[in-house]
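[recover] target loaded
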C-alpha cells in the first residue's frame, strides 16, 4: 500500500511545494506515495468561513477554532489509523527515529497551525501528536509539514536509488555524518585524505567512524550523552 499523507491547512496551494520535484516528485509520479491538501476553511459553517477567534482570557492574536478544525480532521481521518501530527514549536523534537517509525506506516495526517495556535481541546479530543522541527517559531505549520514529509518520503522503500544511502547519514546510529570528498584529488591546495584512496575498505570505514565521532563530539555532544 502506498504511503498516504493528508495535510490540513489554510494554504493548500503551498503543497506539494518542493516535494513535487526530485526524488519525492518522481516517487509521487510512480504512485509510491500520495499527498492530499485539505482546506480547513471549507469546514467553517458561517457565511464568512471563519476559522479563528480571540483567545479566551485575552491576549494578542487569534486561535484556530476547535469545532472547525475537528470537522476537518474527522473528514480526513474517519476510521483511519494514521498518526495525527500537529506542527507546533512546543511539540517533541522530530528525530530520525520517529521519522523511521512514521515511514513504515500507512501514512500520516498533519495539521498545520496558524495564528497563536490551536484550541487545546481539539488537540486532546482528536489525539494530536505535537511535533517540533526546532527551537524557533514559524509563521505557520506548512513549512514544517513539508520538512516532515521530506524526511519520511526519502526513506520509503524504493525512493532512493540506493537504499543503503540512508544508513550512513547524520543521526543514523546516533552520530553526525562523516565528511565527504570526490574528484578532483586536489582542489585549491586541499587534498582528499589519503586513506580514502587507499583501497583499504576496512581502514576507510574505521576512519569514517572516527570522523563521525569527532564531529559529533564537537558539534552535538548531547547525542553522545544520550547514547
Amino acid at each position: 500500500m502506498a504511503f498516504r499523507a493528508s495535510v490540513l491547512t489554510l494554504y493548500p496551494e503551498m503543497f506539494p511545494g518542493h516535494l513535487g520535484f526530485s526524488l519525492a516528485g518522481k516517487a509521487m509520479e510512480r504512485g509510491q506515495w500520495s499527498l492530499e491538501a485539505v482546506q480547513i476553511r471549507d469546514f467553517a459553517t458561517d457565511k464568512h468561513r471563519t476559522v479563528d477567534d480571540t483567545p479566551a482570557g485575552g491576549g494578542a492574536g487569534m486561535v484556530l477554532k476547535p469545532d472547525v478544525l475537528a470537522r476537518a480532521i474527522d473528514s480526513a481521518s474517519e476510521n483511519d489509523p494514521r498518526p495525527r501530527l500537529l506542527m507546533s514549536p512546543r511539540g517533541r523534537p522530530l528525530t530520525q527515529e520517529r521519522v523511521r517509525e512514521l515511514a513504515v506506516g500507512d501514512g500520516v495526517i498533519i495539521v498545520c497551525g496558524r495564528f497563536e495556535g490551536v484550541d487545546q481541546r481539539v488537540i486532546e479530543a482528536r489525539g494530536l501528536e505535537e511535533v517540533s522541527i526546532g527551537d524557533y517559531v514559524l509563521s505557520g505549520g506548512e513549512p514544517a509539514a513539508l520538512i516532515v514529509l521530506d524526511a519520511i518520503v526519502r526513506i520509503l522503500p524504493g525512493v532512493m536509488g540506493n537504499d543503503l544511502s540512508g544508513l550512513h547519514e547524520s543521526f543514523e546510529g546516533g552520530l553526525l555524518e562523516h565528511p565527504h570528498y570526490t574528484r578532483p584529488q586536489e582542489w585549491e591546495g586541499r587534498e582528499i585524505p589519503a586513506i580514502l584512496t587507499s583501497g583499504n575498505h576496512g581502514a576507510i570505514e574505521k576512519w569514517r567512524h572516527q570522523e563521525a565521532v569527532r564531529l559529533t563530539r564537537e558539534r552535538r555532544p548531547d547525542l553522545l550523552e544520550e547514547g
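[recover] notes: The longest helix spans residues 201-219.
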